Each structure stands twice: as structure tokens, then as C-alpha cells.
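Quick one:
INPUT:
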């Protein structure tokens, strides 16, 4: 009878590596399990953050720059609200267009403050 495939070679499928001794493997496994499952072992404590300092505006930035940035952010938010309002259903569209109007009015108010602060040339 003809055999279509040859016999596999007669070698050990996993070569012996002396650095992979069972005790070393067990120690490495224990370290990994303790790291991921035991909250108190081998992990450094993560310092707690104060929630009021997640976002911080540089105190050295002048008010006009802050107003300009606020105005640009409001303009971008207004565009996003308008674009989203164009693709959602009717009830959500009304809410997005109302949000767009509130953002736009806020942008107008910031622009008015900026216009009052500008120095005549």
C-alpha cells in the first residue's frame, strides 16, 4: 500500500532548554499571577488625583488669549452640533439644533467681549 506522506522525523518535538527548569517556570508563573490577581503584591500604589486638577489652564495665559480659544472651541462645537443635527432623526435633530443655538449665542457673547477689549489701531 502506498503512503502519500512521509513519516515525521524522529526528534523530540520540544528541545530541552536548561534555563527552563520547572522551579524557574513555577516562580515566573507565581509572579505573573500575583501581579495580575493579587492587588497588594508587587504593584506600586497609584497616587490619588484631585479631581479639580485634571484640567488646568495655565495661569500665565492672558485673558484675551483665553477668550479667543473659547471662541474657537465654541465655533467648532457649533459646527459639530449642526452637522450631527443633519444626520439624526427628528426628535434628536431638534435637541441638536437647540444645542447649536445655545453654543452660537455663547460664541457671540465671547466675541462681543473680545471686540470690547481690542485696542484701536
Amino acid at each position: 500500500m502506498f503512503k502519500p506522506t512521509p513519516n515525521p522525523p524522529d526528534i523530540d518535538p520540544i528541545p530541552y532548554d536548561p534555563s527552563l527548569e520547572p522551579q524557574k517556570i513555577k516562580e515566573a508563573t507565581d509572579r505573573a499571577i500575583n501581579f495580575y490577581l493579587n492587588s497588594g503584591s508587587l504593584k506600586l500604589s497609584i497616587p490619588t488625583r484631585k479631581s479639580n486638577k485634571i484640567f488646568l489652564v495655565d495661569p500665565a495665559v492672558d485673558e484675551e488669549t483665553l477668550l479667543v480659544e473659547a471662541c474657537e472651541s465654541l465655533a467648532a462645537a457649533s459646527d459639530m452640533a449642526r452637522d450631527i443635527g443633519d444626520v439624526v432623526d427628528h426628535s434628536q435633530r431638534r435637541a441638536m439644533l437647540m444645542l447649536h443655538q445655545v453654543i452660537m449665542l455663547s460664541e457671540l457673547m465671547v466675541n462681543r467681549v473680545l471686540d470690547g477689549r481690542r485696542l484701536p489701531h
